[in-house]
């Protein structure tokens, strides 16, 4: 998702979904980790997330994700508005259901005219922006919680223009075409 598409998407989101989408784009968390983000994962005075290995797909090591200023502010605001152990909660304090958020993302993307956007698109956007910013693939793999760079290498191919998805059915392949940037979401990692 380009920055313009992200802005278009956020403008179409209901308020409860905007923060979740922003944190997803800025952290690259897997769908279940994003929707069920826990306050106890916020470490280093709100500057990083440490997702315990038993909450990860590979369950081999914890994942440390530095937080952008935007993500840190959202998490702090969300966590201070509820006594729940979860960051993103409904008005009654219960966490959102993964399917509930997934359907809301797809419907909102369609309303915004973005078509094939899902919760997992946020993760691909995060990874693509890291590669676009010139981050080394081993670092990208570590931030994404991948065991090796083979998972990330197919996600990016370089050219000139804007991000584009190539093969949605078989495997999502991002074509990173914007000039390299030094930051992701305006922040150095």
Number of helices: 7
The biggest beta sheet is recorded as: 3 strands, antiparallel
Helix content: 40-55%
Distance between the termini: 20 Å
Structural class: mainly alpha
Radius of gyration: 16 Å
Tell the overall outline.
globular
Our count of domains comes out at: 2
How would you characterize this protein structure?
- The protein is mainly alpha-helical and 189 residues long.
- The chain is 40% helix and 10% strand.
- It folds into two domains: 3-111, hpI Integrase, Chain A (Orthogonal Bundle), CATH 1.10.443.10; 119-176.
- The protein has seven helices and six strands, in the order αααβββααααβββ.
- The strands form two sheets. A three-stranded antiparallel β-sheet has the order 1-2-3.
- Strand 1 and strand 2 form a beta hairpin.
Concise summary:
With 189 residues, this protein is mainly alpha-helical. Helices cover 40% and strands 10% of the residues.
